[in-house]
Write a structure and sequence with these properties.
Blueprint: H1 12-22, E1 26-30, H2 37-46, E2 51-56, H3 57-62, H4 67-80, E3 87-94, H5 97-105, E4 110-113, H6 120-136, E5 140-145, E6 149-150, H7 166-176, E7 180-183, E8 188-189, H8 201-210, E9 214-217, H9 225-232, E10 239-244, H10 246-255, H11 264-268, H12 272-294
Parallel strand pairs: 1-2, 1-10, 2-3, 3-4, 4-5, 5-7, 6-8, 7-9, 9-10
Helix pairs in contact: 2-12, 6-7, 7-8, 10-12
Cofactor: Zn(2+)
Protein name: Class II fructose-bisphosphate aldolase
InterPro entries: Class_II_FBP_aldolase, FBA_II
Amino acid sequence: MKTKSRKNVITLKKALEQAEKGKYAIGSFSSRYTGMVLPILRAAERLSSPVIVQISQKELERYEIEPKEVGEEFYRVIESENITVPAVLHLDHTKDFKVIEEAIEAGFTSVMIDASEHPFDKNVAITREVVSFAHSKGVSVEAELGMIGTTDFIETDKDEELYTDPEEAYQFVQETNVDALAVSVGTAHGVYKVRQPKVDIERLKAIRTLTPVHLVLHGGSGVPSEMVQNAMKIEGGGISKVNIATDLELSLLAAINRETRMMNEEYKLLSADLKEKARASVEETVTDKISNFLLSKDKKSGFEY
């Protein structure tokens, strides 16, 4: 449960309203190890940037972390480091309603229900149920329409891709009252090894023309900054949240000369020296993304609560 209510810990809806107006995106940085929460928030505070700390159900399982652990570390850092920038704690790709309940209990201010593998009507029904529950708790909801591919299977189970249909996006948002929509427009989760990232700007424009919902780009790691920034600047508001996961973990592992991932408990057992190297590398990566990719540096000053 949240330890203390702070004005700057906000919902995803409130954060993305500001980003969309300002034509920038807020980075949703994945904390696959609880030790990554500190450098993510430190970088955002130093650069005066709004920030989202996230973790997905798949990551919780793969790295053996409980939502409560992430929540406790998030609020500990918010207090101990006196973080003053707008900050969201977000549960990413999740299939299980029980995990959503646990995350909200742990103080997450935003959750994502991913029922995109189901037919449209079932996706709507599942999403509507989560929206009803989360909104009653004052928590924002992100959903997915279309299917975003993957290369590493850490956040999702299948590498299937189905682009988001603009007409369906309009209907989906109308029927679910969802706060943010992850759209499939050419990016993928993981490392781009063979396929090349792309962003279908015309599809994004068509979605924006039909619905005012806040748009989310998953698979931000490895995508050229110009491509993402073009998507952010679409008339009427483009992409306002970009998920970044793989780049962060790769920078952490490289800093400690490790090629394979570990469990969260294994990370905790690293020496103080290795942890410091890991923190510094993650903070540097987040700094680069905020400054050169998301254009969210110094946006705290214009933020309205």
